[in-house]
Amino acid sequence: MRTMISILCIARHSFELMRFAGKPIAGVIKDVAMLGGFQELDIDFVANNPGRTLFHCHQQLHMDFGFMALFDYA
To answer: Does the global pTM surpass 0.90?
Structure first.
């Protein structure tokens, strides 16, 4: 079985990786993060760029199947 990589993005924002694939880490700032199949990621991000923001995977197939959300904050 082939596992596809997910490329996670919070548009217009950077985030700090807190836990990656079950291992705690800190101090790594990213604007995208790549995950293998069934891996988990914990992040912290500051909502400091008000407006519409897209959380999504950069893999088009994943977005086609709904791996994206648009949120708006003031």
So the answer is: no
- Domain membership of residue 1 (yes or no) is no
CATH at 33? 2.60.40.420
Distances (CA, A) of 55 to 1, 2, 22, 23, 24: 27, 25, 22, 23, 23
**Please, which residues bridge with residue 2 across strands?**
none
Sheet with 32-35, edge to edge strand ranges = 32-35, 6-10, 51-57, 68-73
Give residue-wise pLDDT tens across range 8-60.
Answer: 999 999 999 999 989 999 999 999 999 998 899 999 999 999 999 999 999 99
Kindly give the pairing relationship between strand 68-73 and strand 23-30.
unpaired
